Amino acid sequence: MNQNERICHEKTPKGIQTALDSLAMRKPGLSSLVSSFGPVLVAKAELTERLSENEINKTGLREFDWIRFHRGVHLFAITGLMDFRKEFKQAAQMILPPMAEAFAGIRPDIEAINSNIEDNSFDADDCVQAFVKNDTRIINAFAARAGTRPDIFRFTLAQIAEPFKQIQARAFSPMIEEHEWPHGHCPMCGSFPAVAGLIGEGGERRWLQCSVCAHEWRFRRHTCPRCENNDQNLFEYFSDQDSPAKDAEGVSVCKLCNTYLLTIDLGQTIDPVNMDVAAMGMIGLEIQAREKGYSPQAEMLWNLTMNETDVTGE
Ligand SMILES: [Zn+2]
Ligand SMILES: [Zn+2]
């Protein structure tokens, strides 16, 4: 696998901001989406930039661990997540204010959680442990104390944890470079992709980007990542002909598992691309796919508001 040809998109806070600005110019109808969710993307990137990959303990895997990995067990399930207790509070301070702005429907909930973290009413160790172990007892107790629902508290913790997963995925990436991963779920964290990038002549090689840890991995071009269906009669691809990007941006749907995946032909795009911002610009295609009865393989943040009652995307 040639790792040098990854999607190679712009991941710095400055690059993301530039991509957001150009999206708002290109599609003025999306400017409120850009101004709501853009700051969340930038805040997460700022946090990721501040963290150091060097602090992550890259323990070697035993032979038995590699057997599990080759059977499709994602790496974090084997190694565990990095310890982010020390940085938890700072991460919450960076991420939760823009989150509260973006999710107007649960703004008081996020603000209450943030102020409990701020004044140490919620202990960072407890929060991290509750998230890592999915400890329902602590989650329920803290949610009640903040006057919110457990699913909202869990969702908020997951948002704080995301940049840590990203930095760990980046640090662990060389470990799995030589190992085959023929699966549609992420080799690092096990999540599904929300967006794919096509590279090479005619977009022949497809890379998937994990919706949570942002890891990228090569995957068969004509197979559904979600259900591994490869019957070509069960796929459909459509693009937005009104968009300046035309065929470069599309959505492929799988009629077997009824899901869709946003797809960007990177050979046809001119500007440097940030995959998340590019996906944000494709919301019109997503709406079309949803209207046809398909669900996303993985939710992007701004999709969660499409269904206000279901903030967790579950
Ligand atoms: Zn992942
Ligand atoms: Zn499928």
Write the layout of secondary structure elements.
Blueprint: H1 13-26, H2 31-50, H3 63-70, H4 75-79, H5 85-102, H6 107-118, H7 124-132, H8 136-146, H9 150-172, E1 193-199, E2 205-210, E3 216-219, E4 235-239, E5 249-254, E6 259-265, H10 275-280, H11 283-291, E7 295-296
Bound molecules: zinc ion (2 copies).
Care to give the gist of this entry?
With 314 residues, the chain is α/β, with parallel strands linked by helices. It has two domains: 170 residues, no CATH class; 115 residues, FdhE-like fold (Alpha-Beta Complex). It has eleven helices and seven strands.
Distance between termini? 33 Å
How many separate structural domains? 2
| Order of helical and strand elements | HHHHHHHHHEEEEEEHHE
Alpha plus pi helix count: 11
Kindly name the structural category. Answer: alpha/beta
Uncertain runs are: none
Q: What's the average pLDDT?
A: 90
Percent of residues in beta strands: 5-15%
Global morphology? globular
Strand tally is 7
User: Rg from C-alpha positions?
Assistant: 19 Å
Q: How would a crystallographer describe the biggest sheet? A: 7 strands, mixed
Oligomer: single chain
Heterogens: zinc ion
Helix coverage percent of residues?
Answer: 40-55%
GO cellular component, one term: cytosol
Pfam families: FdhE_central
GO molecular function, one term: ferric iron binding
Domain FdhE central: 185-221
